[in-house]
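Board work, copied verbatim: 4Fe-4S Wbl-type domain-containing protein
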Amino acid sequence: MKANSTTPAPAHTWITDAACIEDDPRDYDVDAPFLRALSEKQLDSTYAWQRITNLKCTACPVAHLCAVDALHHKDIEVFRGGLPMFSRHSRGPSLRRIIEPLLHRVAAGESVEELQTIAFGALLRYVSK
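↓ predict structure ↓
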């Protein structure tokens, strides 16, 4: 069965193939330093970019399945499929509206690296308004 953007494959069938399987899960948290780096007052685009691109998601053979799973479970405050899943409060909903269409594209098998670049540009444009 091939997963699509609405029905995830059971995690136990793919999670062991994830590039991040042996990493500390906290490395994939959308944490306070990352959120501050994307704030209008303390914009640190270098830190934010490094935080996004230093994850193993671009080389992960199951990034698309991770993205499908994240969309299905509506994950928050964690990186999934190479993209940050923001919270549902404060400015999180606006940031989620930027990320979710891109996460659907990861789920469809598009390049994580290219979509990270698109996401980063869109997030910076939003923060700089």
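The beta strands are 78-80, 83-85.
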